[in-house]
Design a protein that fits this description.
329 residues, alpha/beta, TIM Barrel, eight-stranded parallel beta barrel, 10 helices
Length: 329
């Protein structure tokens, strides 16, 4: 495992963090609590010391499972939690953005209770709220920092312009955007902004909803509320284009003595990203963790990745479909 100290903090964290959206079950076809807890424990045993969650993942379920798993595991001194604020949901499962100061005050208390802690190490605003001035949200987050309820402030899915506005009222120590071999929009703006302003990148979606696991085929059926039923990447004919790219990427990985999954995560780390989020919900998925470390992709390898994408994906699409709507005005 590789570790680093997040800029502008004293948090020394693993460069791979465990993402727990799937563990919450919502939009991933349900969850099994005992298997989820075993997954978290397996990640910790492999050296992961940062677990990322959010209230909206399972409408509180993911945070509850993370809290229970970490309480059972013990040895909390060097294990860090990141969670988020700024999304609310109704009884029928409709999710909207809400980053009002009142919502932030309520959510942090709910998260502390579900996580069974009195302090959250990293607290992100999950999505910018177009109905609330960015500075107002930032001031509410800064108040939590000064009160000691959170240890570091992050923003997720923010543009550079929104981060500029936020930084007029509060420090931004981390930014959590989507980033993987197939989804690279941040290279044009968010990534250089963060590098210029000493903001750590903690990228989510390293495996692109499982596409880069190397274990998906064109006959895969997504059931229930699985978000991949509405993800444009998983709809034909585009799905076959991405799968063709996956096959060529698997060949590149094999030449380096690796499977595709560790190569995909290594690619994120080698692009100058401080932390890659890896979502999982079964303990056996953690077996690939050690294969990520102890090597790097060369410039030639990364150029070959680019050529593979150019030659196979004729109709690329980003992760825009995941953006939740604003509240009704």
């Amino acid at each position: 495992m590789e570790y680093l100290t997040i800029p502008q903090t004293d948090l020394k964290v693993s460069r791979v963090a465990l993402g727990t959206w799937a563990i919450g079950g919502w939009m991933w076809g349900g969850t099994d609590e005992q298997e989820a807890i075993a997954t978290i424990h397996a990640a910790l045993e492999k050296g992961v010391n940062l677990v990322d969650t959010a209230p909206v993942y399972g409408f509180g379920r993911s945070e509850e499972i993370v809290g229970k798993a970490l309480q059972q595991y013990g040895d909390r001194k060097n294990i860090f939690i990141s969670t988020k604020v700024g999304l609310e949901w109704s009884d029928d499962g409709k999710v909207v953005r809400n980053s009002t100061p009142q919502r932030i005050v309520k959510e942090v208390e709910d998260s502390l209770r579900r996580l069974r802690v009195d302090h959250i190490d990293i607290y992100y605003v999950h999505w910018p709220d177009p109905l609330v001035p960015v500075e107002e949200t930032a001031a509410a987050m800064n108040k939590l920092l000064l009160e000691g309820k959170i240890g570091a402030i992050g923003v997720s899915n923010y543009t550079p312009e929104q981060m500029d506005a936020f930084r007029r009222e509060a420090l931004i120590q981390l930014c959590q955007p989507p980033y993987n071999i197939f989804e690279r929009e941040i290279e044009h703006d968010v990534k250089p902004y963060c590098k210029s302003n000493n903001v750590a990148l903690m990228a989510y979606g390293a495996l692109c909803r499982g596409l880069l696991s190397g274990r998906m085929s064109s006959d895969r059926v997504f059931e229930g509320d699985d978000l991949r039923k509405v993800d444009p990447k998983f709809q034909q004919p585009r799905f076959n284009q991405y799968l063709a790219a996956v096959e060529e990427l698997k060949s590149l990985a094999a030449e380096k003595g690796k499977e595709l999954l560790p190569l995909a995560v290594r690619w994120v780390l080698d692009q100058g990203t401080e932390i890659a989020l890896w979502g999982a919900r079964r303990p056996e998925q953690m077996e690939s963790l050690p294969a990520i470390f102890g090597w790097e992709l060369s410039r030639e390898d990364r150029e070959r990745v680019n050529r593979i994408l150019d030659n196979t994906i004729k109709d690329p699409v980003g992760p825009e479909f995941m953006a939740p709507p604003a509240r009704d005005q």
